[in-house]
Amino acid sequence: MADVERLAAQRLPAEVWDFVAGGSGDESVQAANRAALDLVRLVPRALTGAGIAKTCGQLLLADAAMPVVVAPMAYQRLLHPNGELDAARAARTAGVPYVIPMLSSYPLEEIAEVGGTVWFQMYWLRDRGLLLDLVRRAEHAGCEALVVTADVPVMGRRLRDLRNGFALPASVTAANLGTEAVTATHTRRSGTSAVATHSATAFDPTADWADVEWLRGHTDLPIVLKGILDPRDAVRAAELGAEAVVVSNHGGRQFAGAVPSITALPPVLDAVQGRCAVLLDSGVRSGTDVLRALAHGAAGVMYGRPVLWGLAVDGKAGAGLVLDLLHTELREALTLCGCDSVAAGRDLTVMPA
To answer: Annotated catalytic, 218?
Structure first.
């Protein structure tokens, strides 16, 4: 996977690479995510007679070839002209759900038409009418779940973007939103991020649990709350009918002092006690990382930046290569730990390094 990352960095314009790779503040949360995952050591079982492991199972109500969901990531045409379309095609071929980002650079309907299992991600917009319209569009397009990002009352200060005065090129737009959003994201000013400027005007920093109740009353789709780190928030989400929570620090792109996601995962699992599914996001790079999450008890993981790396290298084929490699690594990790299935992986013993 590191080879794909290097190739992507070589191919992309510097400011686009910074937009993809950068985090908030000193970017220490990204390093902490990686360090915390590396400290998780698993105890393989011997002589189980398990044979070659199977990685398939269910995520929410969807059949999946492995317990992985392609995470929502904005403006994928920055990486490749086919953007979200090719990423969704790669996910379909890999047999895993793909989360259509609200800030996609193709309309959600076009992405959903690619086929496979698609979910729709949303931020809390100030314009609740527009938000509800997006929900209806997602339902009509066949999206099977709503992923609500809960950790962006405002966008974290991403210093690389500020130093670059980052703005979207004319060829990349917020295709699901109106012309005002398009204008804002293309307006370049020194020392500012046009993407952050747009989010400050469009996103509602006052959203609370009442908004989750409101949304639950306006859709029958499963609701997944992404960006949960405190066990109390996970319990509240389950109480309000969320089908899943995603333990995530936004890949180190929001609060610059956040706990690593893998560290926050066990307390969240203990708190919800099976009342909703729990997924892990942030820092996952390898099949061993997926197994680390499973061994803690997670239902699966959301997988982000590596898919973008593959997309930058070779569109659908590159993103597909990344997902194939992850699948191979997970199958090998399960097999070497004496597991015949994902369920067996959840029974492994976890020890600190």
So the answer is: no
